[in-house]
Amino acid sequence: MIARRHERLRANVVAAAAVTGSLVAAAACFNGCSTWKAPEMAKPLAEPLSYRAPYAAARPTMTGLLESGAWAAAPWTEDFSDIEGPRKPVPAYRTRAKMLWDEQFLYIGAELTEPHVWSTLKKHDEIVFHDNDFEAFIDPNGDGREYYEIEINARGTVFDLFLHRSYREGAPAIHEWDAAGMAKGCFVQGTADDSRDVDRTWTVELAIPWSAFVPPRDARIDALPADQRDFGDRARNGAAPAAGDTWRINFSRVQWRHNHETLDAANMRTGAPHAGDGTPYVKRPLPEDNWVWSPQWAIDMHLPQFWGKVMFVR
Predict the structure, then answer these.
(1) Domain housing 168
(2) Residue 195 within a domain
(3) CA–CA gap between residue 137 and residue 129 (Å, rounded)
(4) Most buried among 37, 54, 60, 233, by the most CB within 10 A?
(5) Does residue 139 belong to any structural domain of this protein?
(6) Total-model pTM
(7) What is the rounded distance in angstroms from the CA atom of residue 175 to the CA atom of residue 166?
(8) Confidence of residue 3 (pLDDT cuts 50, 70, 90)
(9) Does 36 map to a domain?
């Protein structure tokens, strides 16, 4: 993730380094670090969450119905919490997800309760978290490097990218990577982009080919020192996991407050959702909410050591 969240991330890295007297080390990290170091500002209160992803008896159909068909065999994750964990308020709207797999695809389904479904971005690889969105972060070998991010809004616009390393380690983030062959669907229970009614949910379905999970060739990676160019994921060659394998995966929901929500003096949502007057949705000039499956303990999705542990079972 980039923009405001990336700017806050960089400020936090420098602040933490100042506390520990290691500003030089922090600056060097943005130029390329070969050793992963967990940030000191993240204080986990619990272990990462885990999930057992069942093998799909049949390929899910893109209907938005996540309780029936092939999806009936997949359990829901825990309801999402604030990105900083239970020390923060419970999210205003429920979010949960589920997963399936087979020899060709990783299947992800998500249900987002939302009284006002709206989005604005329409072009592939626009910065989708500027809208309300759902995001998946996938690290096949769990080493915190060479991982993949997919963001999608309610109209199905996708921003997909490859992270050679986390932003704390200097990235680079390769926006040119695409989840080639991915099928997607977004389904709204309500009326999208119309403030005159109260919607119920929007659901996301993704079918991501295992073959898409291959680090791209890129001049920014090739320019790194030889021992920092390849951390092992290329050797998988986009292979499907075997039963019993565990990948590190997390999910995030970005939620912006808008003009058709009632806020209290502390800018918290208050009262029951209500219909608006039909005027267009406008984001309020407030920070976004970040709600996640497995807590990150900081406002930073790019701490892969805190992502959930997903075992593929058969």
Answers:
(1) 48-313
(2) yes
(3) 14
(4) 60
(5) yes
(6) 0.89
(7) 14
(8) very low
(9) no
